[in-house]
Amino acid sequence: MLENEFPSVAVIGIGLMGSALTAALLRSGYRVNIWNRTPEKCASLAAQGANVSPSAEAAVAASGIIILAISDYANSKTVAASAGLLGKTVVQISTGSMMDAVEFHSFCTAGGAAEYMEVKIMTYPALVESGTSLLLASGTPEVYIKLKPLLETFGKSRFVGEIISSATSAMFAWSAHFQISVAGVLESIRAAKALGVEPALVQEIASFVGIDVDGIFSRWQNAADRIGPPGLAKSGTVFDYIVAADLIIGSTDLAGITLPVLNAVRTELYKWVDYGFGHADVEDAFEAARRHSENLTTG
Amino acid sequence: MLENEFPSVAVIGIGLMGSALTAALLRSGYRVNIWNRTPEKCASLAAQGANVSPSAEAAVAASGIIILAISDYANSKTVAASAGLLGKTVVQISTGSMMDAVEFHSFCTAGGAAEYMEVKIMTYPALVESGTSLLLASGTPEVYIKLKPLLETFGKSRFVGEIISSATSAMFAWSAHFQISVAGVLESIRAAKALGVEPALVQEIASFVGIDVDGIFSRWQNAADRIGPPGLAKSGTVFDYIVAADLIIGSTDLAGITLPVLNAVRTELYKWVDYGFGHADVEDAFEAARRHSENLTTG
Hints:
Strand order of the largest sheet of chain A: 3-2-1-4-5-6-7-8
Order of helices and strands of chain A: EHEHEHEHEHEHEHEHHHHHH
Shape of chain A: globular
InterPro entries (chains A, B): 6PGDH_NADP-bd, HIBADH-related_NP60_sf, NAD(P)-bd_dom_sf
Number of domains of chain A: 2
Protein name (chains A, B): 6-phosphogluconate dehydrogenase NADP-binding domain-containing protein
CATH superfamily of the largest domain in chain A: NAD(P)-binding Rossmann-like Domain
Structural class of chain A: alpha/beta
Largest sheet of chain A: 8 strands, mixed
GO molecular function (chains A, B): NADP binding
Domain 6-phosphogluconate dehydrogenase NADP-binding (chains A, B): 9-159
Number of strands of chain A: 8
CATH topology of the largest domain in chain A: Rossmann fold
Number of helices of chain A: 13
Oligomer: homodimer
Helix content of chain A: 40-55%
Largest interface: A-B, 66 and 66 residues
């Protein structure tokens, strides 16, 4: 096995996605240096062979390729400023706006990064870990070709374009459907309750036609306990929706187009927060909103 | 092969769904008597072995089980009144409200039908023909058990309940998601155009995660040329949406619940009709709505 076939990779941030990326890399034979603000989360990956670094700086210094799996771009800047990126190949997977992507690329270039690629992961951590994910990449084609074997550790990858924000644009375009679709699943469950049908039957029909309702629910449920985006003390399922909807609507508004259905979804989301269900499971939030409107009607 | 193993079945109405039902029955060994208002549509099924009846009355008289695959309940009543249902087992697959289902059941019982079952088909005609559909049934459990082998010719079947409108309720509950989901696909394509991403990429991502975007579009496109529901001269893709959304929203409103996302979808649908795109392909209608709003902005 040649040394440069399996280069040393740093994974900075060991949340749900960082853990999945690390597990997939380790299984494919990469040497992985990991760092997390709270080191406790690194224990099971250490048992699988990951090298737990005492600092982000140490993880970066020991690696040629740096994967940033941190909550957002602001935290990415803080970590990158302290760790240094001189001569490194940077892969950014955090979620932010297209402007965030452009700014962070400039920041890394100014900091001496040798190569840079935006990679947006379109599936759940479990699919990343099993190598059946879908990744969208934007940046320099030569860097994409170099990184492709590494990205294929996580699943199928697709080069979207040289404009650095292209992967984010494509993710938002698709996410509009995802956001609306999840709202559709929840509305269909509300409709079932109203029409005297077991909500479980809706899930049964959905699973027959190939919609992974359990996956959708568990994805948002899993998100309930992790640290959230800036401005929100804690991420919850409804807040996750709002942040995603705001990013998509903000970007499409700038491009001169409105998305009426997604706007309706966002309006509903803010109602749930008003009812005090910002941190709650989305189905609970729907239930609360229904009770709230019943109270308005009856009282 | 015993005579009563493969009873003689009438299929009344040879549209897209009636054709698929007949083809599946013929392949499974049933003797099928078909009738359609315009007999030309029966030619290819006749070549496959179907007996083309000169009248609905003749088709019903020659059959023990009568499948009604007519556009709606009003037309079903007209045909049933002229053909007679005395002693027959009636399977109603037309789309209507829950009240339609209750009324038509009473109508058939009063007309002497021996057995009755509401069956709602949750998938495309192509899946019915290949025997991989999903059917929801409501009525008497004994009738369901008797009809199950016949229903399995079309795919998987599920008994929903004894209340005759239950299958319709379950279909509406699920359809709320389907309507919203299709609107979500179209909004994601609009978003892609706004954000400078190839719309084809949205379809590529959708197909990767298991959403059949081509199937969704072709389903509605196929609907554009068939005869529509009462009150509309001709069914088109946007009208199909409106009728479905109206039925779901009407039924859930009666049950005391509103569906905000589906309401937003309906509001959009009516806008498209205002723009003159009621009979058009839904993606064209979205395109027209976008141009319309651009004109409002720039002019």
